[in-house]
Amino acid sequence: MDYELMMNGNVKIGQKAPDFEAITTMGKVSLNDYKGKWLILFSHPGDFTPVCTTEMIAFTRANTYFKELNTELLGLSIDSNSSHLAWVYDIYCKTGIKVSFPIIADRNGEIARKYGMISSDISNTETVRNVFVIDDKGTIRTILIYPLNIGRFIPEIIRIVQALQMADCSNGSTAANWMPNQPVIVPAPQTFETLQARNAEIEKNRNGITWYLSFKEPPEKCIGEIE
Hints:
CATH class of the largest domain: Alpha Beta
CATH topology of the largest domain: Glutaredoxin
CATH architecture of the largest domain: 3-Layer(aba) Sandwich
Strand content: 15-25%
Order of helices and strands: HEEEHEHEHEEHEHEE
Mean pLDDT: 90
CATH superfamily of the largest domain: Glutaredoxin
Structural class: alpha+beta
């Protein structure tokens, strides 16, 4: 195990997600269990807390959309599995909503520290609201960090997965405020000859602004496809 990584949580976009095995509200899980699927690994400060409760409900309500994107949800906090179970049961009793994904009981904080989920400037034990988007090859693609008192906006997390999958599928990029079914950005030319050809294409098709910013229609089948 990389000691520096475990102590400092120095994970970065583009690196392989640190492996783990854990006890959850749905039994034992490991990162390897999600091979071939995208994974949203997210942490919350503690059970029986108001903001976290709204997030568990919101993630559960959105779980169908994540599954359509070949994406699974996995929560985490340093509370015990018994506490997690009591909390999700309380949510069920009060709302009728069954939390539909596992929650890791990271009692010793090993996974939280490995992923850098604890901010010592805020707390030595509570995890801040981290979100790690891990792709189907086990690579970290996006890292989001929210303060303790601000709930996550679930539609944006869904959009991030859609945008990443579209960028991979189309070999392109997505523009600011991109939404599904909108055009994607074509990679910029790398030679003067192709630059001239791109400008000619833009002049003909009206599909861009200049040689380094042009668009193409997205592939019809891309998001959520399982190879």
